[in-house]
Queue: 3 jobs
Job 1
Amino acid sequence: IDQKLFGLVQGVAAIIGAVLLLKLLDDLPRHWVARVLLVLSVALVAGAFLEVIGVLRPISDSFREVAFPETLFYESDERDVTITGFPRPKFFTAEPSYLAIGFFAFINSWLILTYSKKSLFVACSLTVLMFVLTGSPVIVISLIVSLVIAQFSESDFTSLAFIGVLACVVGLGLASTQPQVFTSFLERVGESYQYLGTSIPTSENLRLVFPYLTLVDVLRVSPFFGVGVTGKELIERYSSLPVDPSAALGNNALASIFIYLGLVGSLLFIKFTLDYWRRARVGRIALLVVLVLALSQTMGGPETLKFWGYVSLFAGVVKKSSVP
C-alpha cells in the first residue's frame, strides 16, 4: 500500500507539473521557444562530441558520480566499444539512452515549430551525427518521427517525393558514416530473441519485448484494472519471464500504463488525456499521439515528471504550430 500511495502521489504531481508546463509554453513567444529548443539540440550533439573526444568525459563522469546513486550509475564501456568503437557519451545524464531521449524530444519539437525543408535537412543531419556518436536505437526512432512530422506537414506530391529521397539519403548516411554502429545495431536487434529464455536482458528486450510479454501475463490474470499504479512489487506474481521483476517490467511507458491500469483503466485514462488536450485547444491531435507513442517506446516511468514533461513539451509545440 505504501508503494502504491507513493506512486499515486508521484503520478499526480507529475501530471500537475505537465499541465503547468503546457500553460507556460502557451504564454511564451513561438520564436523564443524554437530558438531554445535548437540551442538545446545543438548543445547535446556538441556535448556528446566533446565527451567522445575526451574533453568533457572527466567532468561528466565526476558529475554523475555525485548526482546519481550507484544503482543508476552506468558503467558499460566495454559493451559500448562493441557498439560504437568507443565509450558512448552520457553528457551529464545517468546513461547514453537518457541523452538520446532528450535529443529526440528537443530536435523534433523544434522541427514541429519551424518546419520547412531546410529545417528537416538540419534535423536529419543532426540526428545522423547523434546516431554516430551514441549508436542508440532511440535515435533511429527520432529519425522516423522527424520523417513522420514531415509527412504531416506536407501535402503535395513533389514534397512527399523529396521526403522519400531524403529518407533514402539519411538511411545511406547511417550505413556509411560509421558502418560499425549501423551493423552493431542491426545485430543487436536481430539477436535479441536469443535472450528471451535467459536472465540476460538486452536493452532492446527491455524496451520492446519484455514489457509487452509482461503485459500479456498481467492481462491474463487481471485484465480490467491491472496491478495498480506503480505495482512493481506485484510483477513477479504474474510474469513468466526468467528475469528480475524490474527487468520484466522493462522501460516502455505505453506497456507500463496498461500493466498498471489494465484495459478499462488505461482506456479511461487515455480518454481523459485526449479530452484535456482538446479542451486546451491543442490542434493536430493525431500528430501528438504519434509523438507520445514513439516517446513511450523509448522510456518507462509513466508516473514520472520526466515522462510527462516530454509529453507536455510535445503538446505545447504542437499547439503552437497550429497557430499562424
Note: The CA atoms of residues 84 and 180 lie 6 Å apart.
Job 2
Amino acid sequence: MTDSWIRSTVMAALLCVPSLAVAGEEEKHDVIQVALLQIRDAAIASKPEMAASLFADDLALISQSGKLYGKDAALFDLRNGFEAWDNSEIIIRQGGDTAIVTLVNNRTRTGMEPAEFLVMQVWRKEDSGWRLSAQSSVRVKQKTPPAAK
C-alpha cells in the first residue's frame, strides 16, 4: 500500500460519515483544540502529568505496529523527549457527548528524524470534561528522492 492510497482511503471513509458538528458546538471544539495543545505541551516538556487528566482511564491507543496500549503506556510515551510536535489539518466532528478528531501530527523525538502521522481520535464528554478515549495512527512514509543520474 502506498501512502497516498492510505491517505485517500482514510479521507474517503471520513467523508462518507456525515459531519456531526452543529451550530453552537464551536466552543466545545475549542475545548478539544486546547486539550490537543496541552498534550503537545506535555510531550515537549516531557511532563506527562500535564496531560494525564485528558486521557480516559479506559484509553485504547492502537500503535503503528498494531499493538493496543492503555493510559499508563500513553503517559509513559509522553515522557520520552520530543523536540517538536505540530498538529495540522485538524477536523472535529462532534455529536452529543462524542467527538471524532482527525489530524496530521508531525513530531520529532530527541535524537531521531522527524516523522508524520495520520491520527484519528475519539473523545468523550464525561462529568469532569472531554477525555481522549481512543486513538489510532499510521506513520506516513517519507518519499525517497530520485537517484541522481
Note: Residues 29 and 82 are 26 Å apart (CA to CA).
Job 3
Amino acid sequence: MKFKVLIAAIILGLALPVAAQFRTIAEALEVRLSDLSLPQSEGGTVAYKPCDECPYQTRRVSSDTQWILDGKSLPLEKFRRSLISVTDRTNTPVTVLHHLESDRVTRVSVHTVSQAND
C-alpha cells in the first residue's frame, strides 16, 4: 500500500514543474458584429466591446492579421466589403483573437452561415 502512495507522490511531483510552465499567450473574445469596428488599413486598429457595459477596446492589427469569413481567409478589403451585406449584425458572432505578448489582434473570424439556415 505504501508503495502505491510513494509511486503516486513521485508522479505528481514530476508533473508539477510541467504544469508550472503553462502560460496564456492569447485570448479569444466573442463580440457582436454590431460592436466591432474594422481598420481602414492593414496597419490600423480594430475596436470592439466585449460586453454591453464595457467600453470599446482598441488593438493594433498588422499585415499578418487573418480575416476569416465563414472559414475562408480573405484580404482585409474583401472582408470589409463582404460584411456590408450582413443584415443581422447584433446576432452575428465575431471571434477576436488577441495575442497578449505583442498586444495585437492576430485573427478576426465571422461566421454568418447559420443565418442562411434560419
Note: Strands lie at 26-32, 36-37, 45-48, 57-60, 66-69, 72-74, 93-99, 104-110.
